[in-house]
Amino acid sequence: MKKTKLTTEVIVITGFMIALAVVLSKLVSINISFLRIGFGFLPIAILGILYGPVVAAIGYGLADLIGAWLFPTGAFFPGFTVSAVLTGLIFGWVLYNKEVTFVRALLASALVCLIVNLLINTYWLTIIIGKGFNVLLASRAVKEIVAIPVMATVIVLVDRYVLKHVKNRSIN
After folding, report:
1. d(CA 86, CA 96)
2. What pTM was estimated for this model as a whole?
């Protein structure tokens, strides 16, 4: 696996993606009780595709911290920051230095939705709101299962129609 050099370009694009993740997660998402529907994953998937798991993990961890600080929705809970870091790691691990096919994007989305969002985040919610794990799991499962193909499709479309130009350009 190719190691990402920390250049000015990487720092600037990562900062932009962090800001975009905060906006898409906090301002453009729909929050219904313990369900959130949004596109905050997309800038992190982009970081994973372009720069790998470490940059994507740090980026989403920072985005979560910044979003919690700028737009608090209750007491800060560090478990969700751990989940954000894991999400970045998964996107980078599955998508970095590889062709972004629908199957690969589906795998990344399924891992994020089923392991991080459904299992780990549901556990964090049981700690916060005190409801039983199985009750929350059942109510969140449908949303996460529906989200998998939607996330995969968005990732593939962005990779094919936006990122292909970024990945193919050369800096002189």
Report:
1. 15
2. 0.89
